[in-house]
Amino acid sequence: MKVIDRRTVLASGLMGAVAIFALAAGTGPAAAEARIGAPAPAFTLTDTNGRAVSLAAFKGKTVVLEWTNHDCPYVRKHYGGNNMQTQQKKWTAHGVVWLSVISSAPGEQGHVSPAEANKLTADRGAAPSAVVLDPKGTVGRAYGARTTPHMYVITGDGMLAYMGGIDDKPSSRLEDLKTARNYVDEALTQLAQGKPVSATTARPYGCSVKYSS
Fold first, then answer.
1. What is the pLDDT of residue 57?
2. Which of 186, 208, 210, 181 lies closest to 197 in space, CA to CA?
3. Distance (Å, rounded) from C-alpha 84 to C-alpha 127?
4. Residues 6 or more apart from 80 whose CB is under 8 A from it?
5. Phi and psi at residue 206, in whole multiples of 5°?
6. Which secondary-structure segment (H or E) carries 3?
7. Under 8 Å between Cβ of 110 and 71
8. Which DSSP string do the residues of 128-155 spell out, in sequence order?
9. For 31-208, which CATH class?
10. Using CA atoms, how far apart are residues 80 and 20, in angstroms rounded to an integer?
11. All residues at 6 or more sequence positions from 2 whose CB lies less than 8 Å from its CB, including other chains
12. Residue 208: other Cβ atoms inside 10 A
């Protein structure tokens, strides 16, 4: 019995050490804080116009978080096919707050200056409520954002209602937009109708978020 206990303790210690090392290296789960039905992680970030953007300021409003990287082919699919812009315009017109989040670290793919980000928004005809910058990856890791795009829907009372891929077509092919089931649009429609969100999670797909090491 003592041998079994000792082995159990040793195994548990090893697993704990591995988990700590993975988190320190930035390869493990970012944070287990973002959970469906739980309060969304609070944050304050600076947008591309130098303004502070706080999740707490949007109490009472539905909020969409869209992790993005303009150089990612999966992101280019949704912008090149005008899918992301259409969703942004549709839902912000209904009072939804749509925040595009850039967590690419300096020197990594997708990192942009505020001016470059604003130019991208204008050139693509994008219409988020704001583009917010997370170069240290603090907010991305708190949410467990793994891909671009990776989408989150937060209810007016601050609860996380959806997280995952934007749709069910994990490809970079424009033609797949025509037959995709858009989970974000579906979740927002159900919330607007006072209904529970039927699909609360889906596998995110796209390029990995380019966090700092």
1. 97
2. 186
3. 9
4. 174
5. 135, -160
6. helix 2-25
7. yes
8. -SEEEE-TT-HHHHHHT--EESEEEEE-
9. alpha beta
10. 40
11. none
12. 13
What is the Cα–Cα distance from 30 to 145, expressed in whole angstroms? 8
SS3 80: helix
Structure-block tokens of residue 197: 């969100």
> Encoding tokens for residue 183?
């989970």
In which residue ranges of the chain is pLDDT below 50? 1-32
The pLDDT of residue 213 is 81
The per-residue pLDDT for 33 is 74
Q: Collapsing DSSP states into helix, strand and coil, what is residue 44? A: strand
43 is written with which tokens? 């944050």
Q: Where are the domains of the chain?
A: 1-28, 31-208
Closest CA to 67 of 123, 119, 141: 141
Q: Does this model's pTM top 0.90?
A: no
What distance in Å separates the CA atoms of residue 21 and residue 1, rounded to the nearest whole number? 30
Strands 150-154 and 160-164: antiparallel
CB proximity list for 157: less than 8 A, separation 6 or greater: 59, 60
Residue matched to tokens 């708190």: 142
- What the block records as the tokens of 90 is 């549709």
Tell which residue, 29, 37, 40, has the closest CA to residue 145: 29
pLDDT of residue 15: 36
Lookup: tokens for 147: 């891909």
